[in-house]
From TrEMBL:
Keywords: mRNA transport, Nuclear pore complex, Nucleus, Protein transport, Repeat, Translocation, Transport, WD repeat
One function term, GO molecular function aspect: structural molecule activity
Membrane topology annotation: Peripheral membrane protein
GO cellular component: nuclear pore outer ring; Seh1-associated complex
WD repeats: 5-46, 51-85, 288-320
InterPro entries attached to this UniProt entry: Sec13/Seh1_fam (IPR037363), WD40/YVTN_repeat-like_dom_sf (IPR015943), WD40_repeat_dom_sf (IPR036322), WD40_rpt (IPR001680)
Cell compartments where the protein resides: Endomembrane system; Nucleus, Nuclear pore complex
Family: Belongs to the WD repeat SEC13 family.
Stated name of the protein: LAME_0C08130g1_1
Stretches for region Disordered: 249-274
Length: 339
């Protein structure tokens, strides 16, 4: 680990690397976003720009896929989603290098999580907050990045909570090109996989069961070289869990591609195909309490082969599958270590 000073004047809530790992953005309760670039010669993070982004704590941000340019989305307790675009000709540290594209104000409560969809799905993002509603926005005309449309509004909780921390809500998109548009939404202790039906409506395709506390973080692995999906969660119950997700058809055939006729199981909330039994099969394949305390963050590497987790023990643990496909802790990094 190599720490660097962010210069934020309050708690840092989120960090996000760009696609190439050469820039990192941070957001804070001081209402500011900062972007740092990695200096190739010194290998140090240098401040590129800092600006006031919202009128309340900025708690989540994300970079768009690079084919759409250098764009950051941010959400805040002020109930707003804001989109920012870099002006590469503006001087660094001028406060003018990132300009506001637009503000999206449909939420009725503080927003806690924002994530862009994979680039092959187009320029779209999902936002989730205290009103318990998942909203998906899309720039239907990529040449006009100031115009975004609310394309989906889906309640993920039957009754929104009165008040919760931003860490009780999170979402992630499935990066695979071989599944229909799919994303995972975690709200409190629920983890729900949503897909789109033939009418472009989101439905609950599966649940990730077994969590015994609030879900703090979730990460969907890239499926390079795999026919199945891997999802990791970090939970307040102190466990890192890894789930295997496969697409199932009637008769156990995972790869048939048929038209869908969806119905909702009212008890489980999981959608099923009346005629063909279409659905997602979810299997818990790994569960570990090595952090011996609350797990706050999980993240897969770019190829989906190594999982990192961080918890109350102040350590980062790296997980990798063995030759028997059992996930084992391969390394432990302490915050006190210096490289």
């Amino acid at each position: 680990m190599k720490p660097f000073i962010t210069g934020h004047e309050d708690l840092v809530h989120d960090i996000a690397y760009d696609f190439y790992g050469r820039h990192v953005a941070t957001c804070s309760s001081d209402q500011h976003i900062k972007v740092f670039r990695l200096d190739r010669e010194s290998n140090e993070w240098q401040l590129s720009d800092s600006w006031k982004a919202h009128d309340s704590s900025v708690v989540s941000l994300d970079w768009a896929s690079p084919e759409y340019g250098r764009i950051i989305a941010s959400v805040s307790y002020d109930k707003l989603v804001r989109l920012w675009e870099e002006e590469p000709d503006a001087p660094e540290c001028s406060g003018r290098r990132w300009t506001k594209l637009c503000t999206l104000n449909d939420a009725t409560g503080p927003l806690f999580s924002v994530k862009f969809a994979p680039g092959h799905l187009g320029l779209k993002l999902g936002a989730l907050g205290n009103d318990g509603t998942l909203r998906i926005y899309e720039a239907l005309e990529p040449s006009d990045l100031r115009s975004w449309t609310l394309t989906s509004e889906t309640p993920v909780l039957l009754s929104p909570p009165a008040s919760h921390l931003q860490s009780d809500f999170c979402l992630t998109w499935c990066p695979s090109r071989f599944l229909p548009e799919t994303l995972l939404v975690c709200a409190l202790d629920q983890a729900l996989i949503y897909q789109k039906d033939k009418n472009e409506k989101l439905y609950v395709a599966a649940k990730l069961e077994g969590h015994e506390g609030l879900i703090r973080c979730v990460s969907w692995a890239s499926s390079i070289g795999r026919w199945y999906q891997l999802i990791a969660t970090g939970c307040k119950d102190g466990k890192v869990r890894i789930f295997k997700v496969t697409e199932m058809r009637k008769g156990g055939d995972p790869d048939r591609d048929d038209d869908d006729s969806m119905s909702i199981d009212q008890e489980s909330g999981v959608s099923e195909n009346k005629d063909k039994g279409l659905g997602l099969n979810v299997e818990l394949i790994s569960e570990s309490a090595d952090h011996r305390g609350e797990v706050w963050s999980v993240s897969w590497n770019l190829t989906g082969t190594i999982l990192s987790s961080a918890g109350d023990d102040g350590k980062v643990r790296l997980w990798k599958a063995s030759y028997t496909n059992d996930f084992k802790c391969m390394s432990v990094i302490s915050a006190q270590q210096r490289s």
